[in-house]
Amino acid sequence: MEIVLKDRIKEAVKIIYNSEVNDDLIQIQETKKDFKGDFTLVVFPLLRFSKNTPEKTGETIGQYLKDNFNAVSGFNVIKGFLNIELSDAWWLEYFRKLTVEETHLEKCQVSNPETILVEYSSPNTNKPLHLGHIRNNLLGYSLYRILSGCGHRVVKTNIVNDRGIHICKSMVAWQKFGNGETPESSGMKGDHLVGKYYVLFEKNYKIQIEKLINEGMDEAEAKNSAPLMKETREMLLKWEAGDKEVFGLWKLMNSWVYAGFDETYKKLGVDFDKIYYESDTYKIGKDIVLSALNKKILYRNEDSSIWADLTQDGLDQKLLLRSDGTAVYMTQDLGTAVDRHNEYKFDKNIYVVGNEQNYHFQVLKALLKRMGYKWAEGLIHFSYGMVELPEGRMKSREGTIVDADDLIKEMQLTAREVSLELGKLSDFSDEEKEDIFRKIGMSALKYYILKVDPKKNMTFNPAESIDFNGNTGPFIQYTYTRIKSVFRKAKQMGINTEQVLFSGTKTGPKEIELIKLLCKFSETVSAAATGYTPALIANYCYELSREYNQFYHDFSILGEADEGVRNFRLVLSRVTSEIINEGMWLLGIEMPERM
Q1: What's the average model confidence in pLDDT over 358-375?
Q2: CATH code of the domain covering residue 444
Q3: Cα(137)–Cα(265) distance, integer angstroms
């Protein structure tokens, strides 16, 4: 509608003021809720053509639209803003088109689809997934669904950080303190078991540091001289040299972790099309670095380490290979980016990584461009804020992280308690109940995280997330199942709901307000795709659910005596349920049919 309005306003300016006007001068936005209207034209840029006051210019253009465009039923002018009201007939005609769409994502399809890689998760194999990973995975997976829903070819990728000093810490600790413990012998998930030894390493490492400081060393020297750290560095060198024993232990412990990760990913409902491993891509990165060194793009320091000077880009000096030849994270990311582009020829590669890595991705992009990779312009860092609990930040080294598996289990247990208190599941089988508890628990978790602007830090409060009356996933699910219940009752009354079609009927303001919201779905999805913001869809689903519940409370549907009105409200309910379902699907949230 905004495009049509722009054309009509251009027409008005041409006829009234005998002037051609560029699109960028016609600024249209949705009318604020405090004012009457559907769309608002900012009049000030058009004063150069009218040579008149903002109020008079708005009145003149508004009257022209009302007289010459039957979709416009009225207008009002507030200072320099023309608020345009669309007719009920126009909204009903738009709604009629929604009733016959196979999917309400049709209008979101882009004219020039791109190949887009979305990287998310990026775990380390020295610890299990935690609450921070949950936000990462949920954002990444939702981005995939939103972008693919708009017609892009999207590839879901993961880079597993399976090598380096942090991995060796867990390995050294297991060798020294593990006594051959395995997931099978301990009854622990493999990622939890390996994480246990990472925490054990840090605990004993700290004791050694304190001992050396008490013996007279300064803190920096003590950290470097601690026996555990020396053993870890030696193990890393052996690993990169291909030592058979070290390599075998690395493969064994990583296999435990991967099995654990897979369980957690399944619970979260996320997956990947391609998984990359740092143990492969760092080699590609080293070759890229050495090639750039030969081309004098990089320089070698006196200690034989290799660096990039990015000061001309407003950045800093960046280490790419240590003096002993071992690689850093940046080396791996260079290799991964090149490997991915060789395989997929992507237009964009979106990295879903926390905002503490903003500088890292500025450097990565600058390096690749300096090395001549023009496609590096398509690298996008989807920088999101940290997630905490009410009691504060998590620290994986100290073992104070909120484990993803524990949180998922807690959410489902809470869903069970709340649902049983409501007492509406008495006629459900145990299997059906468990499925509903799972869907409610995961909806609470996912929605609470995704409704927040990704750029913002957030505090996750499990108790708030599962409220059936607030801005939560379970509230939206309840609205959806309420509509499904209406249709089940209609069937019991002998109404063939599959044959109920939209027909013109007298409607009230409440129905029109609901229709206006339904008509905003496609533009909301498009905005979420271009702005990489799942929160837009999450909050739209809540607003739509809240509006429908008010409509449901105020008006009878199946008890309506006028068959035409009843059928119209059934169609309105059906389209509402379809759009809620599609919106929540874009967030990776399952909708129960009953609850």
Answers
A1: 97
A2: 1.10.730.10
A3: 9
Q: Which residue has the tokens 């509903």?
A: 436
296-301 CB contacts, 8 Å cutoff, 24+ apart? 297/370, 297/371
| Chain centre distance of CA 569 | 34
Please give the Cα distance from 236 to 250 (Å, whole number): 11
Whether 73 and 86 have beta carbons less than 8 Å apart is answered as yes
> Is 467 a residue whose pLDDT tops 90?
no
Chain Cα centroid distance, residue 505: 40
Q: Which residues pair with 307 in a beta bridge?
A: 299, 319
- Residue 520: count of CB within 10 angstroms of its CB: 16
Query: Is the domain of 7 the same as that of 143?
Result: no
H or E stretch including 91? Answer: helix 88-98
- And the tokens for 458? 């957030």
Nearest to 123 by CA among 258, 284, 249: 258
The pLDDT, as a whole number, for residue 157 is: 98
State the residue range of the domain holding 290: 120-398
Q: How far apart are CA 61 and CA 42, in angstroms?
A: 11
* Cα(249)–Cα(254) distance, integer angstroms: 8
With beta carbons less than 8 A apart as the criterion, state whether 118 and 541 touch: no
* Residue among 184, 197, 193, 111 at smallest CA distance from 150: 111
Question: What residue type is assigned to position 232 of the chain?
Answer: T
Instruction: Give yes or no for a contact between 407 and 442, defined as CB atoms under 8 angstroms apart.
Output: no
Look up the pTM and report it.
Answer: 0.91
Under the banding of pLDDT at 50, 70 and 90, the label for residue 514 is: very high
Q: Look up residue 178 and give its DSSP letter.
A: -
In a domain, 67, yes or no: yes
SS3 annotation, 426-494:
CCCCHHHHHHHHHHHHHHHHHHHHHCCCCCCCEECCHHHHCCCCCCCHHHHHHHHHHHHHHHHHHHHCC
Tell me what the pLDDT averaged over the chain comes to: 93
Give yes or no for a contact between 362 and 392, defined as CB atoms under 8 angstroms apart.
no
pLDDT number for residue 504:
60
Is the separation of the CB atoms in 289 and 298 below 8 Å?
Answer: yes
**Kind of pairing between the strands at 387-388 and 115-119:** unpaired
The reply to whether 310 and 419 lie within a common domain is no
- Which residues contact residue 3 at a Cβ distance below 8 angstroms, ignoring those fewer than 6 apart? none
